[in-house]
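Possible regression after last week's pipeline update?

I re-ran a chain I had predicted before the update to compare outputs. Posting the input and the new output here so someone can diff against the archived version. Not blocking, just want to make sure nothing changed silently.
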Amino acid sequence: MLCLTINKQKKMNRILISIIMAVAIVSCTGRGRGPLVKESFENNETSIPAIMSGFSHGRPVIDKIDINIEPCADCITIAKLISNKNDLDGKTVSVKGIVTKVNEEIMGRNWIHIQDGTEAEGVFDLTITSNQNAQTGETVTFKGTIAIDKDFGYGYSYDIIMENAQTVNPNL
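New output (post-update):
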């Protein structure tokens, strides 16, 4: 008899949990709403929806800035890099530009975006990974290895990226 009572109680607990979950799912009418949400995500910069709003298909949305950076003697422009990416895959190149965005210490490296004012195939921004850091607004020359069609997983894939870059003095 005791065994039968315990089994009935377990079954009732499962049913009760199922009902609660169903009500919670059905009552959620959109992002930031429902009985389990304490506050709206819309004005919270650290929330996942706010973070993802700066992304388009898993890629950060970067605004093009109006600049014209004179490349150093041994540098390549972003436009030439994009236009010749297949030939430059696996090669070490130098690129000079203004830092437009920095994400520090993600997957053990810093992710730096630069622009130089040039554009090819609609691409005007180069993502660079480095163990060094740079400040937004700083003009920097990086030397690193070009990789094309690089997929880091979790939706982070790049048609072109400069990896393991180091800052260099463009006057040398």
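Follow-up from reviewer: compared with the archived run. The helical segments are 2-27, 48-52, 78-83, 85-88. Marking as no regression found.
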